[in-house]
Amino acid sequence: MAKTKKRRPPARRRPPAAPSGGGAKPERRERKDEARRSREAERKRVARKAAFRRSLIFGGVGVAVILGVSYFDRAAGAKPLSDAAVAAAQAADCSALVTPESSAPGGLHLPSGQSTTYPDRPATSGYHAPSPLPGQPRVYTAPVDETQAVHTLEHGSVIMYYRVAADGGISQDVVNALTPVANGNHATYLVPYPNLPEGTALAYTAWNKLLTCPKSITPEQATTLAQGFVDSFACSNNAPEGKLGDGC
Q1: pLDDT of 21 strictly over 50
Q2: Rounded to whole angstroms, how far apart are CA atoms 85 and 16?
Q3: Which of 163, 173, 178 is nearest to 228 (CA)?
Q4: pLDDT > 80? residue 122
Q5: Strand order in the sheet with 188-192
């Protein structure tokens, strides 16, 4: 009798394997990548903004420094004589303010020790000694080297020249009144000048500026005019090197 073959049960079919990583994982990764890219973009945006802000700050500081240096390096502008000074000059029968030279360039230095003859008395511009008058004293009792005095005017100083009373000049009371004006202001001097033109007892000078007065001027008139003259021209850009005067 033939043997009957046993039937094997059919093999169980396994479900297909899920794609590697699972269905939800790629989506999560995509979200993480997107978040990372967003954070990186934000970081770069903030960095650019901070760099721009720093450049503005440093640029502004640089401009402020340049403007500040320029401002302090530049001499103040000359001003017209005050109304009080003009009134004092008129009351004292002084001259009008004049500009002796149509052109008065600076930097015209003589060789050391060389003298020159000036067309005006007192001189207010022209060739001058390599060195100006010293900062002190401000009040002299004897004449000074005029070539040094002109250099001092080039530095923005004011010099008040006077003829002494014994030579037909201003009274000692006027000299005494002008002394504190010279000592109390920047770059201002009071100096005797025996060779002032006839009829001139007092001369106020700045670079290429001159105002003269007779011996009849009173102490009050002289000091009012002096202070107005100093306020207008001392340490100003009226002079080629108006910031170099003593105390400017």
Answers
A1: no
A2: 112
A3: 178
A4: yes
A5: 188-192, 158-162, 202-206, 209-213
